[in-house]
Amino acid sequence: MADYHWADHGLVACITVTAMSSAEAAVRSLEPTAREAASFDEARHASWGSYELCHTMTIQTDHHVVIWEDNGHGGASGEPFLRLCSPGPAGSLFVNVNAVSNLVLGRHGSITRQFDPLFRADTDEGRGEPLAAEATLDWTMGRYLASSLALIADYTGLGEPFEQEWFESPRARQWLLPS
Fold first, then answer.
1. What is the 3-state secondary structure (H, E, C) of 34-46?
2. Distance, CA of 179 to CA of 54 (rounded, Å)
3. What angle (nearest 5°) sits at the alpha carbon of residue 90, between those of residues 158 and 24?
4. pLDDT by 10-residue block (mean), the chain, 179 residues
5. Given 17, 24, 90, 143, which residue has the most CB atoms within 10 angstroms?
6. Is the separation of the CB atoms in 142 and 118 below 8 Å?
7. Tell me, what's the pLDDT at 27?
8. What is the per-residue burial (b if ≥16 Cβ within 10 Å, else e) of 9-19?
9. What is the distance, to the nearest Å, from the Cα of residue 17 to the centroid of all Cα atoms in its chain?
C-alpha cells in the first residue's frame, strides 16, 4: 500500500477520494453552490479567517478525484458523502486541530465502514465490518492518519499515491464552498 507519511505531521483537513467523473461533479456533490476560484492565492485569501467559506482543492486522476477541504468536513458528512460514493467507491478522512477524526468508506450510495482512526489501535468498533486491509496497517498515534489515507487509496483503487504538494500546483483546481 502507498505510504502517506506526510499526513502524520499536522494534518488538519478533510481528504476525500471518489470515483466521480470530474472534479466539478465531485465538488458539486459536496456543495451545489461551490464557486471555482482563479488561483490558490485567491481562494486562500478569500477563505482566510472566514467562518463562511471553505477553501477546497481538487486533483483529477485517470479514474478518481481527490478533494482536500482546508478546515472543512463536507466530504465526511452524511448526505454529501453518500452522493460522493454513488458512482463507485469513495473514502474520506476528516481530522481537526483537536485530533477529532472520522474515516468513512462507501460505495453505491451507502456507507460500508466508518470509524475513528485515532482509536482504531484499541478497538475495531465502528459502523460496518472491519476490512482485511485494516489489520495490516499501523493505527498507533503518529501513524493513524497515514494509515487512514492508505486504507482509502486501497479501498477506492487509487493507484497513484497523491502528495500534499499537488494541491498547490497548477494541476489543482481551487474552489470556495460555503461552510
1. CEEECCHHHHHHH
2. 6
3. 90
4. 78 92 95 93 88 91 91 90 96 90 96 92 84 92 91 92 81 91
5. 90
6. no
7. 96
8. eebebbbbbbb
9. 6
